[in-house]
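Re: the pair you flagged

First of the two:
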Amino acid sequence: MTGPPSLSPREARDRYLDHRRTEASASSIKSWHYRLKHFVEWADDEGGIEDMRDLDGWTLDEYETHRRSAGVSAVTLNAEMQTFKNWLEYLARIEVVDDGLPEKVHVPGVPDGEDTNDEMLEQGDAYALIQSFRENPERRGTDKHALLELLWFTGCRVGAARSLDLRDYHSEEQYVEFRHRPGSGTPLKNDSDGERAVGLPPSVCEVLDTYVDQYRTEAHDDGRQPLFTTVQGRPAENTLRVWCYLATQPCLHELCPHGMERDTCEFVHVHHASKCPSSVSPHRVRTGSITWQRDMGLPAEVVGERVNATLEVIESYYDKATARQRLEQRRRPYIENLQLED
């Protein structure tokens, strides 16, 4: 009986991802593919690795040094090397590489404070942007306005917003229903665990109603009717990101902080919207929304259910309230419960 065959880096990567595909979400597989492709490309171009059996401790260190020299952040390098180690652990289990090889992978730590990004759409900016849309008859209910309201008031991911069908928006009952539909190209990040119904304030439903009645283009997608549409049908995630960049430009409600004139600024065009120094991505809207929902008194458990995130993730990566904000807006109301009774 022969042992396992020799595998090239590319073959080994593809086998690993195929193995994980049944137990991991599509977004996780995509992320691991992206992280491991750096090694595959390095092995082809510089490492001279044609057979995974040729890997040794020196080669692993050379690859880590290569990634460090590329200028990646500590967080990115940590994630890449951890995924690399997990991959080698799988290959060791099926005897493609030596048992001890995974332990030779150095997974660098992340300095305190570098594992999160504090950039977010601030509450005051969100209020100003939303009010500017609501008060402008030409912008109220447009696709960009509707998306911004949905992202801010639900804290959902952009992929979840894209997944919504017209039937998932319940105007009279005032909620949206996020459903996992991988078979037709709209999976949720956490698969069926990401399915949930999220309530909306009446004012948000008024905006969504205006969008549906006046601005939404009738379109079908595999027999479904997307909530957000373009003339080509359901928009791609990148299209929604561009809408978000356009919807969060401060010049919509105030003078440009960068001295530009909106009529002549290139950043107001779809191809350059992401280059605006003050606009933010859907992820930053999500971060701001989660912090705002906590500041408004919603318990962390309730926010977690609304945005489909664990308490640990919310506290570590999304909730950006300062220590003083946590005291004044969240804990001080409970101080009266600590007084001695007469």
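Second of the two:
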Amino acid sequence: MHAWPASEVPALPGQGRDLRIHDTATGDLVTLAPGPVARIYVCGITPYDATHMGHAATYNAFDLVQRVWLDTKRQVHYVQNVTDVDDPLLERALRDDVDWTALAEKETALFREDMTALRMLPPRHYIGAVEAIPGIVPLVERLRDAGAAYELEGDTYFSVEADSHFGGVSHLDAAAMRLLSAERGGDPDRPGKKNPLDPMLWMAAREGEPSWDGASLGRGRPGWHIECVAIALDHLGMGFDVQGGGSDLAFPHHEMGASHAQALTGEFPMAKAYVHAGMVGLDGEKMSKSKGNLVFVSALRREGVDPAAIRLALLAHHYRSDWEWTDQVLRDAVARLERWRAAVSRPDGPPAEAVVEEIREALANDLDSPAALDAVDRWAALQQESGGTDEGAPGVVSRAVDALMGVAL
């Protein structure tokens, strides 16, 4: 599966700082100091109802991670999946009376278009669940053969007790885990499971649903968590730098994925930091497919909204915060974009070195994008009030905003 084209990242004078970021597993800020190649896995979409503002906020956060690393002169090995077969996708296809593969292809194409418009840097590897099945099956067999998985009426489940570190990502108690498991794709009430929290690794073929050859597992399709584990281990290996996604993935998805990988390899941890973006709401509720209260990037683009303004609307909120999309949020972003473009349209202006360093410092400090915006706002206000004599400073600021925040002025 192909990703989307990369926008050019301008080179800046000097060098960025190592990233300090909040790790869900420890509950603290950690300083990441990867080697020459930083490794990041971000969980992708299930391709229906793409791309809503919650998606955009999540991928904006991890785009900033990449940009901070690139500014330190590192390379970035970024991997993202597409869950192009799963119950919610099949249910939507059935509801709309469309072929599930056609729906997945259409929504994935729309997601690519939105990511391109928003200048999100693409992953090096963009892998669909279906194309990953040949690598998933052997992992499930290994877990089964090691006693870390078991069969139940043809389905194969992972035993959470096989990983002594289970619970170390989300730190939830059993009651909370059981509740979230039921809400987020699990089946804690299924009779016969060794532990209600045990997640499915391989679902035996159901009538009327797609299935693939699972070798000794029989025909079926993969569970949600093992999909990401297979892709991450194949392309990044254990101990990669960041596992990322929305905060609703901390449990069960990232918790279960970590346990799958740790049971498979005997190594710990799967990722050095588990980083989660906050939820975006609308009209007082979390924006979600199930509620139908979605604001789509593509719809805003069709209305003529500049993608740079959408990006600024996202950047105005700290990535870990839960926030609400409103018309005023967008109006503020459009006005900011106009101010910034006016400020960089002159041949000279106030010195740029300080603002570039302020942006770097803000983003290296747990991706504090609101502070980075404030730094550019102050420079733009000086430009409007009194201008400056530093020839080329507007160009430096423009390149910094592009390189570090993905906003083209």
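The first helix runs from residue 53 to 71.

-B.
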